[in-house]
Amino acid sequence: MFDLIGDIHGHADKLEELLVKLDYRKNSDSYAHPERKVLFVGDYIDRGPKIPETLAIVRSMVESGNAIALMGNHEYNALCFHYRDHNSGGHLRPHYIKNIVQHYETLRQFHNRQREYEDNLEWFKTLPLFYETDTFRAVHACWDKNHIDFLRKTLHENKLTDELIRRSVDREDPLYNSIDETLKGKEITLPDGQTFRDVQGTERTDIRIKWWENPENMTYRSISVQPINHLPDRKINLGDLSSSSWYRETKKPVFFGHYWLKGDPIFYRPNICCLDYSVAKGGKLVAYSFDGEDKLKSDKLRYV
Q: I need a labelling partner for 51 at 20 to 30 A (CA). Which of 7, 40, 155, 243 fits?
């Protein structure tokens, strides 16, 4: 079965420690387990001290058949940061200061290693955006049935091509919203012009929401993934959110990363498992050892 591992962000030492804890052993090609396979939920680059080393570990496991690696928003952002915009003359992801800062460690660690960097960008295009079996689902940030159905029809074997990458930044194209929410999650705008600062210190007007909850009776405070104290404790403006699109308790377990959780790993529900516990901010690198169970078990969480 699968060991699902959360956002790594260049922490290769932590990754190797976790793989050993999960009884994977390194052979000449990659880490391997005689009976199990890893599923990485994305975000291998940016922020951490050993980004090329992290990519080497993940790639070798994928290429030797010992792992599946999904695309995270940081890999997608790196592609858009690199690709030229033929219309504007700039790049698909503008080189604003905040975007440069987010991607800085990756660029710095690949300094004078341009070919290797571009080879990894090509590899990012081979990463599927989601994964599903008869017993579980995995995605980087959000499993929305409508988006997943659209991506199944639109992507090339569940992967991005050059053409699709260029399409995906056009806000008028439905591909934009499907990729944006699948890789970055759902957000709602705070009322009355309120703002907050995220983990990087960027001032924001939108909060990431618990897309697995029925939004109908949720408040801004209760629906926020991150506990932000000054959020208004009043019912949200549903806007484009649908009370019928939330991820119900009866659906198969879904695993994801992305949300910078803190503390010891827990489940939001027995079928909802976030694996991102902020390893890049001194937190934990987390895995779940899945064996086909309908309800997730806390003793199957592993972390370092």
A: 155
pLDDT of residue 240 exceeding 70, the answer is no
**Residue partners of 199: CB distance under 8 A and separation at least 6:** 260, 278, 281
Q: Where are the domains of the chain?
A: 2-185+249-303, 187-240
CATH of the domain spanning 2-185+249-303: 3.60.21.10
CA angle 55, 140, 4 (to 5 degrees): 70
Global pTM? 0.95
SS3 217: helix
Angstrom distance (rounded) from CA 140 to CA 143: 9
Nearest C-alpha neighbor of 224 from the set 257, 188, 258: 188
The contacts of residue 132 (CB under 8 Å, 6+ apart) are 138
Tally the C-alpha atoms within 13 A of residue 165's C-alpha that lie toward its C-beta. 27
Calpha distance 118→45 (Å, rounded): 14
How much is the mean pLDDT over the chain?
Answer: 94
- Summarize the confidence of residues 199-225 as an average pLDDT: 89
**Helix segments in 88-238, DSSP class H:** 97-109, 114-124, 145-154, 162-168, 174-184, 220-223
